[in-house]
Amino acid sequence: MATKPEIKKYARIVSTGIALGKTLVTNDDYEKFFGLKLPDAWRNALENRIGIKHRYVSAPDQAPSDLAAEAARMALQNANLTIDDIDLIIFATDTPDFQTPPTVCAVHQKLGAKLKTGGFDINAACADNTIALMLAAQNIMLNEDVNYVLVVSPYTMTKFIDPQDVTASIFSDGAGAVILGPSSEPGYITGKIIADGSYTDYWGIYIGGARPVNENVVKEGWHKLRYLKRYPPDINLRHWPGLAQEVQKKANLTANDISYYFVTQVNREMIHQLMRLLGQPIEKAPTIMEKYGYTGSACVFMALHDTLTQGKIKKGDYIQFITSGVGFVMASAIFRWV
Any idea of the CA torsion for 264, 266, 272, 274, to the nearest 10 degrees? Predict the structure, then answer.
């Protein structure tokens, strides 16, 4: 009969870092930069409900791996570590440099990592950040030779948008990095992943893998972000509260025990509504879309970094990540600050 592996050490979050695309584009500048005037009704919703007043756009020669390496260097500096201290790099995004080789190899090279530092890519759209944190913590807890793991999540969706699509104005380029390390007391508590593949054909980038490509497919714009069906506007709010509560129950906690919630930064009003459904003050869910736009895979790491730099998270605080990506995949995880 199989037995559960013995946990000889725990895992905690050690530090964070961020990076931004090269050019700041305000809503006023959007038409000049992208060639599309934002309609008044959309701009009002964008600024007042979604919460986005500007975005950062990566330069043509600025790859996701460049942003990831920049954020990683900040996280290493904040942790007083070097790349030689890192045992594993997890690269998490749905906007990698290329299909293959894994983009973690480009980050590995740019950081000057050596053979002892392993690495791999994951893609769960904008839920991959939380899943990567879970994988990082589990690697530390279960492997004697893994002590420090670097998770990097860049996002460069502006390279894939149709600039004439008004909804593309939510997207922004940036990267977040989190370093996890060993701990004598629990930092990572628990987590859960859910998925519903019936939304696979709603929206995405549908070539770049093994799907056949020809000239017509490219002319039709299938290499760009395509909206094929309208996502139900309440899809996140139908699933986020239950997922959050299920993970809290697994941790033997309640919503009141969580000091901060880091939620996918796609819509400020939606995050506030989640807090109301959980019976929590909106101040417990920091938002950064007003600073950075919607940075997808990177967004909750950037929100965590922003909250940390303000000195708000204290020892003993519980924090919860609640993230979702198209397809769909959703994930939640709880950490204790130790």
Answer: -50
